[in-house]
Automatic annotation (TrEMBL):
Keywords: Ligase. This is AMP-binding protein. PROSITE patterns: AMP_BINDING. One of its GO terms (molecular function) is medium-chain fatty acid-CoA ligase activity. Residues 465-541 form the AMP-binding enzyme C-terminal domain. Pfam families: AMP-binding (PF00501), AMP-binding_C (PF13193). It comes from Paracoccus lichenicola. Residues 51-414 form the AMP-dependent synthetase/ligase domain. One of its GO terms (biological process) is fatty acid metabolic process. PANTHER family: ACYL-COA SYNTHETASE, MEDIUM-CHAIN ACYL-COA LIGASE ACSF2, MITOCHONDRIAL. The keyword tRNA-binding does not apply. Belongs to the ATP-dependent AMP-binding enzyme family. The keyword Ligase applies.
Amino acid sequence: MRSAPKREGGGADISWGGDHMTATLHFTESHFPKQETGGLIDCTLGDLMLRNAEEKPDRVALIEGIADASRRRRWTYRELVDESLATARGLLEHFQPGDRVGLLAPETPEWVIFQHAMSFAGLIMVPINPAYTAREVEFVLGNAEAVGVIHADESRGKDLAATVRKVMASLDCLTVALNVADLDKIKASGNPDRELPKVSPDDMLQIQYTSGTTGFPKGACLHHRGVINAAHFIVERAAFPMGGIWLNTMPMFHIGGAVVSEIGTFSRQGTFVLMQAFDPSLFLELIESERVNSSLIVPTMILALLNHPDAKTRDLSSFKSILSGAAAVPEALVKRAKKEFGVDFAIMYGQTESNGPFLETFTSDSDELQSQTIGRPIPHVEVKVVDVETFRTLPVNTIGEWWVRGFNTMQGYYGQPEATAAALTEDGWLRTGDLGTMDENGYFRITGRLKEMIIRGGMNLYPSEIENVLFEHEDVGQVAVIGLPDEVWGETVCAVILARDPENPPAADLLWAHCRNNLSPQKTPEHWIFVKQYPLTATGKIQKNVLLEWYHEGRLVPCDWVRPHRDSKIA
């Protein structure tokens, strides 16, 4: 059996205290240096699970969060590790350590078992969104040069088995397909005496494909040390207790589910309750029946929970903290959630390429900081804001591109050296492509994506600033600001609005007046499009690149409106 995980800097105890980074700081340059608070967990995912099974063998590690409580399956840490080890030996009858293997299945406990089995077997997991078309699955598996795929028969009515058959006929590299339903057979096929390969914390754990908000996905190569520590620091700052219970409704093929929520839970020797899909009624019932402490939920989910009638009848006293991200969280929503649920709140930010989140607010931060910033860096990473042309570090409160460096940077994009070179500098910085500021106290504010920046008449405009103003209007439920091509200005500002009442959207001239009361003329949208839904990623991010495609295809058409004659602030 492998040795217990160690913490860099000495000692084997990895259950340390908080990171104590809430002190007042005073910066003049936008560079937050690495803080050495709390040690790095120096182990593989398999080592972490073995330690948990040794120290807490009878603690429940995994619960199937289905509606019928009598049929919910449960695994202790010892049971989950034993099943994963047996599965790992079965997988090695089909694969060699280092092989890339796709995982195409819905969010069931079997997904978790195969995930850990691949880790023990030294395989590199390639998680795939089960909603993908055959073309998208083919791209991911082909780009990753996967030799095999583990798949379910179906997911939400989608025939995954048929998708796999179609893809296998097209990809020469793909030679093995195993069915999730055959888990028991796979376990039985393995030699129980087979020695599992040695795996290093620096080894690649998975190839995580980006969500594709700005184009076709790229495969970020993530490693054991990166995902374990990023997840641990994030859930620790979000006030998730040691041995606590975490409820997950995020996709498992994504950083939010399989890294932050699941590995974060296991880094705290907690219990992971896995839902297949978000359902507010079931979510509230699970909090009550399983005594859930924490969860990662995006703003639309928070609102659905607050507005659900069961929120007033369920015993939610165990629910202590909400972690959120992926979209702006209005201050009013933060206040309401804290008041009605009695929870602490934390906002996080990160990327696939950074092995997960690396910025996060503190639960002790004010409502204003929770809603208007994305917090400070987690321990052992440094973040700076640079000029997009000169790459020089900028003064505080100046918009530039965020760069991050530390244990958490990816190894690169699989099979894409040019894209890797563009994202990673020679001295170890990851260029995030996100624009924002750092204030004198070290808190970061995001203003948008570098590729989303609108250049109007040579002036850089940041969509997030305009979106924040529109969020304040009482009739606006959600907004996405994009740049439309213009022969005179190069680009002009367009606001794509989802009204609070989509059947009765506000008048464009009223929204324009609201913006002109708070923004200069060049930042005020000139075009207005009203929609009833947005194209979203699986984690709720608006796909602005798809909005632009729809505009060019004629599927989105700006409304006719008359701008007020007086181009000045409206009293």
